């Protein structure tokens, strides 16, 4: 009975967990999908993080990111530069000049864009109405920055650097496609699978002792005998026979006594 109930729970629970995992894939952030390559932070509100998408073009990455999180505005398709505009940050996708097969994903806060980017450069990609709201008519922010790939020529107000080990550890874990296991960045050489054979319902078995151990229930009967084998017969069951719940009966004749069925 217990085995049947356990199997029924597994049949219901495992598909539910898989559906939950698949639905979560649609809401992944950039940091959950691509490795962090460079960071810059100034005054708290000005932040920029750069991720790398290997062997993917700018339009391919733009399609993936917009499917995960729908942007308020997306620039026209371009092989060199594309922008995804959100309420709190901008994604600047740019072809890596040093490795053209890769795409660099620069995630900038709105304040970083306002204080650093060249408005005339953005006009070729973003609607004028959005730029006017962001830059207040291009009057107060004479930035010259044009993106991470040109940071050595058009320098931002800050210095990009390689992320520290602590910053990389803070990035959420990523799942390995097709294996069902979870891998934590920076945990090389360590066993990080969820369960045995990548299963979320099985625990790894400790084989160091050479044999697996099973728990037993032991009960001493009223006659002093001991029951320790899980495969004992019905007579040596750990459960006593329940008393009858039927109503009492009266004995015909006699003195009208009430007896309880046994």
TrEMBL record:
PROSITE patterns reported in the protein's UniProt record = PROKAR_LIPOPROTEIN
Which protein, by its recorded name, is this? Answer: Lipoprotein
Question: Which InterPro entries does the entry link to?
Answer: DUF4247 (IPR025341)
Q: Where is this region: Disordered?
A: 171-262
Q: Which residues form the signal peptide?
A: 1-26
Record field: compositional bias (Low complexity): 207-240
Q: Which Pfam families match?
A: DUF4247
Top-level taxon of the source organism: Bacteria
Sorted alphabetically, which keywords does the UniProt record give? Answer: Signal
């Amino acid at each position: 009975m217990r085995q049947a109930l356990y199997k029924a729970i597994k049949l219901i629970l495992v598909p539910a967990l898989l559906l939950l995992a698949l639905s979560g894939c649609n809401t992944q952030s950039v940091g959950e999908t691509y490795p962090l390559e460079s960071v810059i932070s100034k005054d708290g509100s000005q932040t920029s993080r750069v991720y790398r998408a290997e062997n993917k073009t700018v339009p391919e990455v733009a399609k993936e990111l917009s499917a995960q999180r729908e942007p308020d505005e997306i620039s026209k398709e371009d092989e060199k530069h594309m922008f995804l505009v959100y309420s709190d940050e901008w994604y600047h996708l740019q072809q890596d000049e040093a490795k053209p097969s890769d795409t660099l994903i620069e995630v900038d806060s709105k304040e970083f864009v306002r204080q650093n980017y060249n408005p005339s450069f953005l006009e070729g990609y973003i609607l004028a109405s959005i730029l006017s709201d962001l830059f207040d008519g291009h009057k107060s922010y004479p930035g010259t920055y044009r993106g991470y790939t040109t940071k050595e020529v058009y320098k931002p107000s800050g210095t990009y650097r390689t992320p520290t080990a602590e910053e990389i550890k803070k990035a959420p874990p990523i799942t390995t496609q097709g294996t069902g296991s979870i891998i934590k960045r920076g945990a090389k050489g360590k066993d990080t699978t969820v369960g045995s054979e990548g299963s979320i319902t099985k625990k790894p078995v400790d084989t160091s002792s050479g044999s697996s151990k099973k728990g037993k229930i032991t009960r001493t009967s009223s006659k002093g005998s001991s029951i320790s084998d899980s495969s004992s017969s019905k007579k040596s069951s750990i459960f006593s026979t329940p008393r009858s719940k039927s109503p009492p009966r009266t004995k015909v004749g006699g003195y009208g006594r009430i007896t309880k069925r046994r």
